[in-house]
Amino acid sequence: MQMQRQDVVFLFLLTFSCFPAFGSGAIGLPQAELDALARIGDKVGKPWNYGANPCTAGPGSKDIDEFENYVNCTYPPNDTFCHVESITFRYQNLQGMLPPELAKLPYLQRIDLARNYLNGTIPAEWGSIRLVNIIISSNAFLGQLPTSLANLTNLIDFRISDNSFTGRIPDFIKNWTKLEILAIQGSGLQGPIPSGISSLVKLIDLRISDINGTASPFPELDKMTSIKTLILRNCNLTGSIPPYIWTMKNLKTLDLSFNMLEGQLPRTFSKPKAATFIYLTSNLLNGSVPEGLRKVSNVDLSYNNFTPASTKDCQDVNVNLFGSPPTANNLSGAVPRCLKDFDCPKSLLSKFYINCGGGEVNASVIGTHRIATFTEDHDSGGASRYVQSGEHWAFSSTGNFLDNNQEPDVYIGKNISRLIMPNSQLYMTARLSPLSLTYYGLCLWNGNYTVKLHFAEIMFSDDESYSSLGKRIFDIYIQGKLVWKDFNIVAEAGGTHKAVVRNFTANVTTNTLEIRFYWAGKGTQSLPNRGTYGPLISAISVESVTCCGKSSSVQHKLHTFLFAPIVKTNNQYAEIGSLPFENRQFTYAEVLSMTNNFQRCIGKGGFGTVYHGQMTDGTHVAVKMLSPGSIKSPCQGSKEFQNEAHLLMRVHHRNLVPFIGYCQEDGNMALIYNYMAQGHLGTHLSDSNSDALSWDRRLRIALDVAQGLEYLHNGCKPPIIHRDVKTANILLNERLEAKIGDFGLSKVFSDDLTHVSTAVKGTFGYLDPEYCNSNNLTEKSDVYSFGVVLLQLITGKKAIVRISGSAPRSLIDWAIPMVVGGDIMDLIDPKLEGNYDIKSIQKVVEIARACTSPKSIDRPHMRDVVVELKEYIGNEKAFESESAPENGGCSGPVLTTSEILSCLSAR
């Protein structure tokens, strides 16, 4: 007699229900299984409630919106208990680990934990369960697959895609002879595909992709007569495609792209009866394109070596042949055949701007004071779509999004959240491609060009959920040359929904510019939804260096002006840049020595990774290495390095991170600071930190930061604007004294400017709204960010507040309405446990509110903030005694401008 099952719904407070098929009333689970479920809930981070009788609740619907959150129970015949047969927690954003306690559920057959935030390894204990289904895709699992899984001989469905496992695909999968579904896409496992896979003759759906390892021949799959979906993408396969592939009568989807398969397709090609999708892109296939392929609905043969006679067009009926002739093969940069006979008008262009996937907009050109019109790019695109916009640019999109359950595919992404950034109109849409996206500048003057590529990841979230685990990785080619391998928008921008612009140079010799974004099978493919992968581009700006740029000598002079602060001595203005700093320069060998070959990473910043180090005299240091990505983009990384190195050598204050020196050798760039033993302020305010900062200490930290900013604004000539004031850039020494760090975004201003129009940089949640809207930067932008930090000190919350059941919003939007409504008590960090002076809190709230006024004119200056805060520190004399100037009086916390200049001139 077959076991009867009943679905049980778990919603926040979990209850159980099991009912026998013959209606004898509700019965319960054995105590051992209840205990096991409690431990499982604790391991995966699922809050369960056992207060109610688990045998009295009725069954509910299995489908709640799109989320799946339920347990199935089975009622075996002649048994007085029901038993857990399956557990499904999909899309739950669980952040725990896989529970070995599943082995305590003897009747368990199915486990589905897909699309969560779970981590750790697969427990070896799972090999002792009679599991039929294991679905744990789209999480953050690590380690190798335990050998005990070889015992799961009843396994039917095994899916582990989009994870970070290690090791090779195990040969013991040959034991799973009942397997019907196997999905190992972007799992982290390495190849080759084991020969034992040939034993899985019942497979209906086989998907393996993105596996590193040695090259291997095509696996023997001829006995898989029932297979409908066969995906072996980016698996290092060599040799020819076996003839039996074309005789698989049930095969609907075939994807063998991104391998090294060679040879010819059968001349007497007869498509598999059910075939709808055939993808053979980016291989070494040659010969003629069989006529029979045109009978398949969707075929991608792009980037192969087919003969030109059979590939005269980039798009031929349903067959995508873009880049397949040998003249344009292997990303060589040669002009595809479909562009060779293009006739240019009499007038050639020296620039063009594209709002990819969106309408026509006016936006500022990054790095200039000019406004440009970015032309519309509305075409919906397609699997083998070539679109020419006017006479001066075109694009080609190749490939289909697999498994996204959308007909037709969508090739334009749309942002649905609020973007607070300059030129936000450029990032509301983006053009997407599942394989290759190429933009062509047509009929350009020959010469050198600056290419600016605008990106913002608008398809992933930035919260700690399964959707934040998505990784979009692709390559960038310009004029056929690889200029950036494995480009990751989120990593370069520092998060999702943040803009990042990368600059490149290109030489045009045939009046045509090619910009290609190319997906080579890397990254995730199902996060946050299936079919989320491949290139994404928001906007493109191309300008001739000769017509629109400045000569290198002019640019050098401009940089010298920007980065050389000037101080006034008794009788003249002196350029601080002339001060000697050779004694602060370290060799790369010295950097390697002090960091022990970069053994201990202690953080990652906007343009580099920070390592702990120790100098020969025992001094502990923090070494920030400029990232390779930033080096590739000299207009951000190198400029920021030069900016920070020059600034740090010239400013000295007890509330700025002490700077020791720098390294610049053979492309290796490092900044070396004193090590701050207590890390950054954000970690001390987080919920996970049990050692909460007292209110008195928070006040002192606020004053420390205020004094550091006041020095930058008033103690330096010209003033220095930090531009990225946030808790992560406020470092604490062993005495919990605050020091401002990370001058990578700092800007130096000349005396005759009250503001500077500049590309907006900073961190979402701290950005001055007036700065975002106008691009005009003043010291009041730092004041706004400081106000956000004050609110964080009061509330203990992050700059972006996430409350269950509502969309994320800024701390300002969350807190200020409460302040206006008089609900100050609800703002205060509960970790303070009432140990504070409410009048002091109220005063700091007033200061924070003033600092975060929407209009900069309504915000105080930092010197005024310092005065206000000092009034609430307590014993004034004790505080001033503690804050005595260092270094002979030249580095005190609050020195006047004249005092600072006198100190510098005296040296």
TrEMBL record:
<keyword id="KW-0677">Repeat</keyword>
<dbReference type="Pfam" id="PF11721">
    <property type="entry name" value="Malectin"/>
</dbReference>
<dbReference type="GO" id="GO:0005524">
    <property type="term" value="F:ATP binding"/>
</dbReference>
<feature type="binding site">
    <location>
        <position position="624"/>
    </location>
    <ligand>
        <name>ATP</name>
    </ligand>
</feature>
<dbReference type="InterPro" id="IPR032675">
    <property type="entry name" value="LRR_dom_sf"/>
</dbReference>
<dbReference type="GO" id="GO:0004674">
    <property type="term" value="F:protein serine/threonine kinase activity"/>
</dbReference>
<keyword id="KW-0723">Serine/threonine-protein kinase</keyword>
<keyword id="KW-0732">Signal</keyword>
<keyword id="KW-0597">Phosphoprotein</keyword>
<keyword id="KW-0433">Leucine-rich repeat</keyword>
<protein>
    <recommendedName>
        <fullName>non-specific serine/threonine protein kinase</fullName>
        <ecNumber>2.7.11.1</ecNumber>
    </recommendedName>
</protein>
<dbReference type="InterPro" id="IPR021720">
    <property type="entry name" value="Malectin_dom"/>
</dbReference>
<feature type="signal peptide">
    <location>
        <begin position="1"/>
        <end position="25"/>
    </location>
</feature>
<dbReference type="InterPro" id="IPR008271">
    <property type="entry name" value="Ser/Thr_kinase_AS"/>
</dbReference>
<keyword id="KW-0325">Glycoprotein</keyword>
<keyword id="KW-0067">ATP-binding</keyword>
<dbReference type="Pfam" id="PF00560">
    <property type="entry name" value="LRR_1"/>
</dbReference>
<keyword id="KW-0808">Transferase</keyword>
<dbReference type="Pfam" id="PF07714">
    <property type="entry name" value="PK_Tyr_Ser-Thr"/>
</dbReference>
<keyword id="KW-0812">Transmembrane</keyword>
<dbReference type="InterPro" id="IPR011009">
    <property type="entry name" value="Kinase-like_dom_sf"/>
</dbReference>
<feature type="domain" description="Protein kinase">
    <location>
        <begin position="596"/>
        <end position="873"/>
    </location>
</feature>
<dbReference type="GO" id="GO:0016020">
    <property type="term" value="C:membrane"/>
</dbReference>
<dbReference type="InterPro" id="IPR001245">
    <property type="entry name" value="Ser-Thr/Tyr_kinase_cat_dom"/>
</dbReference>
<dbReference type="InterPro" id="IPR000719">
    <property type="entry name" value="Prot_kinase_dom"/>
</dbReference>
<dbReference type="InterPro" id="IPR001611">
    <property type="entry name" value="Leu-rich_rpt"/>
</dbReference>
<keyword id="KW-0547">Nucleotide-binding</keyword>
<keyword id="KW-0418">Kinase</keyword>
<keyword id="KW-0472">Membrane</keyword>
<dbReference type="InterPro" id="IPR017441">
    <property type="entry name" value="Protein_kinase_ATP_BS"/>
</dbReference>
<dbReference type="InterPro" id="IPR051824">
    <property type="entry name" value="LRR_Rcpt-Like_S/T_Kinase"/>
</dbReference>
<keyword id="KW-0675">Receptor</keyword>
<keyword id="KW-1133">Transmembrane helix</keyword>
